[in-house]
Amino acid sequence: DILETVLAAIGNPASGSLRVISLSELFVALSGERTLEVLSGIIELPNIMAFLGLARSSVSSRRELVQRWLEGFGSSLYELDEVAEYFAKSTLQGLLYVSARSTLDPADAIDFRKVLFGLILKRVETWRNSYFGPYEFLSETVLASLVPMCELQPDLCGGLVALFHSFISHGETRLLERVWQGGFVPWLCKRLADKSKIQLAMMEQRDAADTTPASKDVPHHVAKGWDRHADMVCMQAMVVRLVTELYDLFPAEFGATVAKEESLVKNLRDHITFYCHQETWPLREEKEVTDATEAIICYEMQLTLRLVYDINEDLQKLLVQQGLLGVCCTLFLPTPKRQEEMRSAIGEQRSDDFSETQFLQEAKILAGGVASRLLSLPDAYKYIQDRRARAHSIGMFSQIHHWSDAVFEKQGSIAELSTVTLLERCSALYIAMLSCQTLDWCLENLGLGQMDVFTHITLRMWALHPNPVIRHHAMRLFSNFCQVHCLFASVLQAESSAKLANQAIHRTFGFWDVRELRHLLRLLVGVLCHVLSIPTCNVHFGALVARMLARKLDCPKLAETLRNGAAPRASSYASKYMFRTGFMSQILSWCEKPGDHYSRA
């Protein structure tokens, strides 16, 4: 009341110059502190423009009083126009604007913002218990002014998310609509990428050997991380629920918004990558925190799965370009360290450790649904072939090798999906994604030695595995590898492998599928070319293969096999077991009826 009376007197045209100066000094003395009581009184003032107007006076003593008052909150006369614009709307918005740009010492600025935010929460509760509810107080402009201030401090970010979350528990749909209309969804999604100080310290330790500038920036961010990891996890859980609630309220607009603003995928990537790349989670011993983290990741993927089925093809392509498939692959694959171990074991004895299949099982199944939906788009395969997905593709190849025996031992039945294990589901998805890789990509990223190993693995899967998805895409990979003469010679120089190829071709003829026909025809044409010494690859590719074999860079076993007469044996067994009159007759018959122009050509 005193402050309001003083401001009224300052703005009274009848007040003399000395009276205005005296009253202004009194206002500065009464309102210059950043305590709870003082700020509470300032917020109640409808307008302080009578005092701020003194900054434009020709009298220096008046300007100095305004300057002193603004400096007490970390502002100055240089920002007068912007500050006055916000204080003209309301005193609260003016204080929020000043607090978001305060130049006070860090500790003082933090305390200032905490006190101000606490006062806002008290007023929300007061309005909530009134007849009118909090709708008049929490206008769209007030909500918009809160964000710049709160995002400067992790604790205030958590407080603002908790305030938004309280709209759900109190059934305040109108306020949730304001959150949507105010464009806060990207800000909420960004909170998923927040890190605690424990996480940042772990990342710094993990990247200690890295000399890139990105790793050197980590210590600077440690100071900005959340103090308590459990609080951050609680905040992220509220974010996921809030975003889901907003999706329910605005199902038609939500998909287009998050896809075009690129707000969901990049923050999901940051959140999921940490937990999937970290050997040990923060506070792993606290079951409640661990369970909450796993539940958050599951709900994130559940939300994403719903999203990819709701949006149109153009928006799905946007999500693919933003790297949503990469997020799914990160969730499927083990830690980078474990991937390296698996890759180094390609061609060697496999371990019996399949513990990676026990990690985030439900989230992986949901991520599999997301990936399967996106794989209906040609852009998804372009992404897999892109350099951005190189590490993921290599990781999937490594895991297929690691699981190459287990996928036969732990097989289920497609007729009863509950019997299909997570290991088999992931294997089917991996091989479906990898079957689009070209020979150039495989030679560059796997090398001849590992390609030789996978030629044998894919032949076995094509011939013996009951899962039709695994079987078909294994045939695609096998037919691709067999275009390289040395790989064809290595795999078919053993009579047992030639018999296996014969068995696989028999299985392929069991039912009509134009894709099977085309890839089988490609395989047989390639093998026939090898038998007749007709080149199947371009000159540049053939020269690379010859150079690798000569230098024995990564394929000493393959080079030794070829020196021992593998090529003539492979040609002989291919003629005996693959080029049979019955097979060629069946292919010719299928080309005509049901018929396929591509195969006939």
Give a structural overview:
This protein has helices spanning 2-10, 17-31, 36-44, 49-52, 60-71, 80-89, 91-100, 106-128, 140-150, 154-169, 173-181, 185-190, 197-206, 213-216, 218-222, 229-249, 251-260, 265-277, 287-310, 313-322, 324-332, 336-344, 361-374, 378-385, 390-402, 406-409, 422-434, 439-445, 447-464, 468-481, 485-492, 495-508, 514-531, 539-551, 556-563, 566-577, 581-595, 597-600. With 601 residues, the chain is an all-alpha fold. Helix 29 crosses helix 31. The chain is elongated. It starts with a helix and ends with a helix.
Main sheet: strands, sense, barrel: none
* Alpha-beta classification: mainly alpha
Count of strand segments: 0
Helix share of residues? over 70%
Please tally the helical runs, counting DSSP H or I stretches of 4 or more residues.
Answer: 38
Q: Kindly report the average pLDDT value.
A: 89
Shape descriptor reads elongated
Q: What is the strand content?
A: under 5%
Distance between the termini: 92 Å
Q: Which consecutive residue ranges, at least 5 long each, have pLDDT under 50?
A: 211-223
| Computed Rg | 33 Å
List the helices and strands and how they pair.
Layout: H1 2-10, H2 17-31, H3 36-44, H4 49-52, H5 60-71, H6 80-89, H7 91-100, H8 106-128, H9 140-150, H10 154-169, H11 173-181, H12 185-190, H13 197-206, H14 213-216, H15 218-222, H16 229-249, H17 251-260, H18 265-277, H19 287-310, H20 313-322, H21 324-332, H22 336-344, H23 361-374, H24 378-385, H25 390-402, H26 406-409, H27 422-434, H28 439-445, H29 447-464, H30 468-481, H31 485-492, H32 495-508, H33 514-531, H34 539-551, H35 556-563, H36 566-577, H37 581-595, H38 597-600
Helix pairs in contact: 1-2, 2-5, 6-7, 7-8, 7-9, 9-10, 10-16, 16-17, 16-19, 17-20, 18-21, 19-23, 21-23, 22-25, 23-27, 25-27, 27-30, 29-30, 29-31, 29-32, 30-33, 31-36, 32-36, 33-36
